[in-house]
Amino acid sequence: MIFFDTESIGYYGPTILIQWAKDDGPVHLHNIWTQPVRSTLKLIEEMAQDTLVGFNLAHDSFHINRTYGCLSLLPLDEPPTTAHYMDVEKDDRCRDDYCVKPADALDLMLYGRKGEFQSTLNQKDIIIRKIPRLLATRLLVELKERVKIDDIYFAKSKNGCQWRIIDLDVDGREITTDTSVERDPDFVNLRLTFHPSAALKSIMESVLGHEVTTFDEFDNMKRPEEYGWWPCSGKWIGVARQWIWEWTNDERRLVYAENDVKYTRELYEYFGSPASGDDDSVLAWAVGAIYWRGFSVDIQACREKLLKANDTIEECEINVNSPSEVKRYLHEVCTPLQRMAIPNTSKEVLASISEWDTNVELTKRVASVVHARRACKEKDLLEKLIIAGRLYVNFKVIGTKSNRMSGGNESFVSRGGSINPQGIKKESDIRACFPLALVDMLLCGGDFDGFEISIAEAEWNDANLRIDLQTGKKLHAIVGSSMYNMTYDEVIATKDLGAQDPNGYYSRAKTFVFGNMYGAELQKSSSVLGLSVDETREGIARHEQRYPGIREARERIYEDFAALRQPQGIGTEVVWCEPKRFVESMLGFKRYFAMEYSVIRALFELAREPSDELKEACKGLSKVKRRDRLQTVGGAAASALYAAAFNLNAKVMRSAANHKIQSPGGQITKNVERRIWDIQPVGIHAWVVMVFNVHDEVMAPCKPEVVELVKSIVNSTVESYRDRIPFISMQWKIGLKNWGEK
Q1: More confident residue, 196 or 492
Q2: Is the pTM of this model over 0.70?
Q3: What DSSP assignment string belongs to 564-627?
Q4: Cα(553)–Cα(559) distance, integer angstroms
Q5: Which residues are bridge partners to 52 per DSSP?
Q6: What is the dihedral of CA 549, 552, 557, 563, to 10 degrees?
Q7: How far apart are CA 463 and CA 474, in angstroms?
Q8: Per CATH, is 2-116+200-293 categorized as 2.40.128?
Q9: How far apart are CA 732 and CA 710, in angstroms?
Q10: Using an 8 Å Cβ cutoff, are 469 and 727 in contact?
Q11: Across residues 691-699, what is the average pLDDT?
Q12: Which of 33, 378, 556, 561 makes the best surface tag, with the fewest CB within 10 Å?
């Protein structure tokens, strides 16, 4: 077992140091730029025959593969030079020839994300809405005292856990940058923003109590110009000399580098010496290796689509990337009442305007803006692809708390950005620009059929629904028949009609199915269906009476995760019911809610039993009008606190329902991806297979001689889940022309 890390020029530039330690032995610092090339290649070859333990292996895999691919083409008996390195880095051979794959892998960052370090993933803001302005400052003090959140949630923030007072306009919207907007004289919001850090040293400091030295204290070096979408751009050359000198001679940096390996080993022991070879760790290595090589791009097709995108942008009369200009452009053809309904030009607002049928010119302008904005995004993507020559994509192997992958890098995301393939929709004709398979490979791939529905059905485990689906009935039409009180045949007959059509029952039911599956609120569901709240409630009751397993699944979520309840009904006493602190998927992956419940409990107790100081601050203050009724200032504050607690609890319950379906989907998809990657030989070997997943689809360029093996592995892996998910299915295709081929 080898514990290791790498240090490089910037984030994407060449590796300078490989720090490593065998088992519990001493830490070695191998400086690539002072050692003969032969010794570096030998070190990497020896590492590849062992189990590699690291923290953020995708990053280190990228650097190990880059280093070996480049150095293998340089003179063996002398250290590399930047000039030689630059020459081979621009040569496709250094990317095509070799894949470095270790015998086994363990990524401690990902291991931690399955447990107590889920906190390093993104966390949405907590907002307490419409707090009386006169009490805001006092409440900040109370919240700081009562709401205790681990420091790691704020590791990237200089101020730590910091609640902020946010002004509102007279319509209750938060004011961010426009200082000319009239402010609400009575109310403000209180907002808590999280800044978690996934860095090893942050974890060592927050969890194990180490005093660590960060680069901010002595980082006086110029950063290279970096691009996540073009990691081999060579923009590091202008700063290389200083970086190499510093990492060779600065004692503080050498101690810093040595500590990375020591901390990794210490964290391994802290976790109880976990086993290697889990899907996530193995895929982390695959992600980094494939990121260095990149996928094939049809440059000519990119140029043709770029011309069309430019034409679309030019056809629009304005700069669609300027919100203020777009807003003026739309307001020019609006009535005064319509202007009030267009406070901004967000995607959601434009989508709602497109449904209006009373202002032809307005809807025409909205369509022009939407098309031009889409073209701007396509232009940005196409220009990057043309420059880079390949599609370089990186992934966060555990990018969400449900264990799904997400696009983007773990660090330095803002430094030049990166291409997120998950943002390239299936319907986009841009996908035709991606043959993906490089020389001597064939593109294979597949997409799960109705994946979320099949997992939801397994989770509901309703006998009646399973029988109906086994006869070939469509879930969306089954649900539509309940919601609209129509027959199944009447709903299925509307399958080809859009949601905006008065008779588009099937399409609206389809949208409702996914929203309801993930805990959409009743008001939102009613809007989607085109029904009143009472009609929607009655439809849900009909459906759950017919399929009681669905009701039981919903009730389980409520019983397990509803911490705040009002047994006597709305408007009566709120009581606390101790909830479960995590939700577990059918495949065993847990999502934790300890932090959320600590905040909910603190808000609940502050609303129910305000401190003497808060009560004193309320004395003598005039009543305020909150939500169309007069309240004392203290009562309004309590209402806001209760509302925030209930809203946060509702988010937890929606997340728990989401986890039950999203988590198995992500885990199964990654398992298919990992089994394909297992075909790639261990050690230093020519590329046999490449693979990545986007949502529920897996794409795998591979050598012709293994395509049937890959297909067999995919089919057997999918089939292995049938006992738990009866309707699981994936259609695997061989010899696709490009990513866009259906």
Answers
A1: 492
A2: yes
A3: EE-TT-TTS--EE-PPPSEEE-TTS-EEE-HHHHHHHHHHHHHHHS--HHHHHHHTTPPPEEET
A4: 10
A5: 2, 105
A6: 170
A7: 16
A8: no
A9: 10
A10: yes
A11: 92
A12: 556
Long-range contacts of 537-543 (CB under 8 A, 24+ apart): 539/482, 539/483, 539/484, 539/485, 540/482, 540/483, 540/516, 542/482, 542/483, 542/485, 543/479, 543/482, 543/483
Token pair recorded at residue 516: 């309801």
Number of helices (H) and strands (E) in the chain: give both, helices first: 27, 24
Of 327, 420, 324, whose CA–CA distance to 365 is shortest? Answer: 327
Give the closest residue to 481 by CA, choosing from 458, 513, 450: 513
Bridge partners (DSSP) of residue 183 are 169
Looking at residue 427, what is its pLDDT?
Answer: 78
User: What digits encode the pLDDT tens for the residues 282-340?
Assistant: 999 999 999 999 999 999 999 999 999 999 999 888 998 898 899 999 999 888 888 88
What is the DSSP code (8-state) at residue 130?
E
pLDDT at 626 over 70: no
- DSSP annotation of 123 reads -
How much is the average pLDDT of 15-39?
97
Q: By C-alpha distance, which of 15, 203, 23 is closest to 109?
A: 203
User: In sequence order, what DSSP letters do the residues of 460-495 get, joined into one string?
Assistant: H--HHHHHHHHTT--HHHHHHHHHTT--HHHHHTTT
Whether residue 516 has pLDDT greater than 80? yes
- The interaxial angle of helices 82-89 and 57-71, nearest 10 deg, is 100
H-helix or E-strand containing 52? strand 51-54
Q: Which amino acid is at 208?
A: L
| Type of residue numbered 738 | N
- Which phi and psi angles does 140 have, rounded to 5°? -60, -40
Write b or e for each residue in 538-557: b if 16 or more Cβ atoms lie within 10 A of its Cβ, otherwise e.
ebbeebbebbebbbebbeeb
Give every CB contact of residue 225 below 8 A, 6+ residues apart in sequence: 233, 235, 238, 416
**At 432, is the pLDDT very low, low, confident or very high (cuts 50, 70, 90)?**
very high
DSSP string, 187-245: EEEEEE-------HHHHHHHHS------GGGT--SPPPP--TT-TTS-TTGGGHHHHHH
Of 22, 97, 96, 109, nearest to 60 by C-alpha is 109
Count of residues in the chain: 742
pLDDT digits (tens, 9 = 90+) for 287-301: 999 999 999 999 999
Looking at residue 316, its pLDDT comes to 87
Residue 178 one-letter amino acid: D
Report domain extents, the chain: 2-116+200-293, 122-197, 298-388
Contact 319, 369 (CB under 8 A): no
Mean pLDDT of 188-193: 91
Q: Helix, strand or coil for residue 128? A: strand
Task: Give the residue carrying structure tokens 């997943």.
Answer: 693
Residue 706 identity: V
Q: Where are the beta strands (DSSP E) in 239-349?
A: 295-296
Distance CA 427, CA 648 (A): 35
